[in-house]
């Protein structure tokens, strides 16, 4: 869908030429683009401020029927994220106008004081990510994605970055896959169905797939997963994806929370907290999609994706508050709140991965706590890790991809809130406060001394209203971040 384009801009066959404009400086060096931006001079309604838009039709010099100017605001405020957003906005505008293709003029990296790749990559990302329409459950498909989007650049840039569009597509296709899964309603992604969706997407790649069903999970001692799934007719599945290239020396394990619907169980959630709980498998979606994209990038390390998939429902068979279960590692857990189910299924998945795969690094991704959303809001994920080097690398990747993470503490003296009178540990903190931290501390009890990080994506995994390069629903948060991290580890 993406490509780089050079040559005579005025002669290009395209439905729209989009030109980003700053309010206080010329962003372009290309003569043809500069000539066009000068045409906005008389339009008082367009100053190049953030959000400004102006479309000129049938300019005599230009073959394309439309030239669309989009404002980027002040030049020194422009960064990777604003370029990503601008391209998403451009693509969405063209989709709404029922166009088939468009070309965006890339600003000069010299003028922006950025590296060329730092300009091109986010622009390509924004265009690809903005070109996603989730209309599977609508009879009338009002909006259709564009067939092509081109980035207009100089010939010498094109030859150096010719591989970039495909690389961006490979990674961002993973983001779209995760978005689709997260936005799918829970009645279409019961655990076995969701596992099949992942398996069929992963089956096309160089990935080994293992599927453990409920009876096998009972036999192997996945007591926590089985307890969370006890109330539902739709029984748990544990999926393990493995990318295992020849000569790999390092193993990185990714673990994703896959609750296909979180009703809370016997601790039933109140109305208002239930409607969006189809998104409680966003960690699983991010991990599965990352493995699928990563397998295409052919990194040298072994990557394990461990994905526990469970539906959390109340019923006569459901686990009760106060029940004590035994997890995969033999530890007993008192389930004091059936709505704190994510940490339970993750504990079993972590214990299994530690025993069977002995990874060098383990990262879990989960929509784990409402408390994390209260702490950091809906756009920033919580990052927990006792390992400074690993945490720094994750933050660095997060900054690059615009999937923001903020490091949170793992204070030892909060561990006492997880003490149980009757079992080895309680799944529920005895304190009302700091719920994101105590959830992370619960997970840490299962890690032993492996290098580990936990990313709580409860906030940014899902949005109710569309943004510049994402529609309402699943955001695919984490896929681009993890793909970038894998290349850095
Ligand atoms: N899936 C929820 C967390 C969540 C909340 C995700 C809001 C996305 C948006 C999780 O299983 C949960 O219910 N956590 C409880 C934990 C509590 C019972 C200790 C919470 O955060 O309230
Ligand atoms: Zn819950
Ligand atoms: Zn949950």
Can you give me a brief rundown of this structure?
The protein is α/β, with parallel strands linked by helices and 489 residues long. The chain is built from 15 helices and 20 strands.
Q: Would you give an account of this structure?
A:
- By secondary structure, this protein is α/β, with parallel strands linked by helices.
- The protein has two domains: 2-161, Leucine Aminopeptidase, subunit E, domain 1, CATH 3.40.220.10; 169-488, Zn peptidases (Aminopeptidase).
- It is 34% helix and 20% strand.
- It has helices spanning 31-37, 80-96, 109-112, 116-130, 155-160, 164-183, 191-202, 214-220, 223-229, 282-297, 342-357, 370-376, 388-401, 435-444, 479-488; strands spanning 2-5, 17-21, 53-57, 66-71, 101-105, 148-152, 208-213, 237-243, 251-256, 258-262, 302-312, 323-326, 332-335, 361-366, 381-384, 405-408, 425-426, 451-456, 462-463, 473-474.
- The strands form four sheets. Strands 7, 8, 9, 10, 11, 14, 15, 16 and 18 form a nine-stranded mixed beta sheet that branches. A six-stranded mixed beta sheet has the order 1-6-5-2-4-3, sandwiched between helices.
- Strand 12 and strand 13 (332-335) form a beta hairpin.
- Helix 10 (282-297) crosses helix 15 (479-488).
- Ligand BES binds at residues 262, 280, 337, 339-342, 367, 369-371, 373, 428, 435, 458.
Q: Give the total of beta strands.
A: 20
Any idea of the CATH class of the largest domain? Alpha Beta
Low-confidence stretches are none
Return the average pLDDT rounded to an integer: 98
CATH architecture of the largest domain: 3-Layer(aba) Sandwich
The CATH superfamily label of the largest domain reads Zn peptidases
């Amino acid at each position: 869908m993406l490509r780089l384009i050079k040559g005579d801009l005025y002669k290009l066959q395209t439905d729209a030429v989009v030109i980003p404009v700053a309010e206080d400086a010329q962003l372009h060096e290309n003569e043809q683009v500069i000539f066009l931006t000068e045409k906005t001079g008389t339009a008082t309604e367009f100053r190049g401020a953030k959000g400004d838009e102006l479309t000129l039709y049938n300019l005599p010099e230009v073959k394309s029927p439309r030239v669309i100017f989009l404002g980027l605001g002040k030049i020194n405020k422009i960064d990777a994220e604003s370029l990503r957003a601008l391209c998403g906005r451009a693509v969405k505008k063209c989709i709404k106008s029922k166009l088939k293709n468009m070309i965006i003029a890339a600003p000069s990296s010299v003028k922006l004081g950025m590296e060329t790749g730092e300009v091109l990559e986010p622009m390509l990302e924004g265009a690809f990510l903005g070109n996603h329409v989730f209309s599977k459950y609508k009879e009338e498909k009002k909006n259709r994605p564009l067939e092509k989007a081109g980035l207009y650049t100089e010939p010498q840039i094109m030859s150096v970055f010719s591989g970039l569009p495909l690389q961006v597509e490979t990674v961002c296709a993973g983001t779209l896959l995760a978005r689709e899964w997260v936005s799918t309603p829970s009645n279409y992604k019961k655990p076995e169905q969701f596992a099949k969706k992942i398996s069929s997407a992963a089956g096309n790649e160089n990935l080994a797939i293992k599927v453990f069903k409920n009876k096998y999970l009972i036999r192997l001692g996945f007591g926590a997963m089985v307890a969370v799934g006890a109330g539902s007719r739709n029984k748990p599945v544990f999926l393990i994806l493995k990318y295992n290239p020849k000569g790999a020396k390092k193993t990185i394990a990714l673990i994703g929370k896959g609750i296909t619907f979180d009703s809370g169980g016997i601790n039933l959630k109140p109305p208002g907290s239930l409607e969006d709980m189809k998104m409680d498998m966003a960690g699983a979606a991010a991990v599965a999609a990352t493995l699928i994209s990563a397998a295409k990038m052919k990194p040298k390390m072994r990557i394990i994706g461990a994905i526990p998939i469970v539906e959390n429902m109340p019923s006569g068979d459901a686990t009760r508050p106060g029940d004590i279960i035994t997890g995969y590692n033999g530890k007993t857990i008192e389930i004091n709140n059936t709505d704190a189910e994510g940490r339970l299924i993750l504990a079993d998945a972590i214990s299994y991965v530690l025993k069977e795969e002995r990874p060098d690094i383990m990262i879990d991704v989960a929509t784990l706590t409402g408390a994390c959303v209260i702490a950091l809001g809906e756009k920033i994920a919580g990052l927990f890790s006792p390992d400074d080097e690993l945490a720094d690398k994750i933050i660095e990747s997060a900054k690059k991809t615009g999937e923001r993470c903020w490091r949170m503490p793992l204070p030892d003296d909060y561990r006492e809130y997880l003490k149980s009178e009757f079992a080895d540990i309680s799944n529920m903190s005895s304190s009302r406060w700091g719920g994101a931290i105590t959830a992370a501390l619960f997970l840490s009890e299962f890690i032993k001394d492996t290098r580990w990080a936990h990313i709580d994506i409860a906030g940014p995994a899902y949005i109710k209203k569309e943004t510049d390069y994402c529609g309402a629903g699943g955001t695919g948060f984490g896929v681009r971040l993890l793909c970038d991290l894998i290349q850095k580890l």
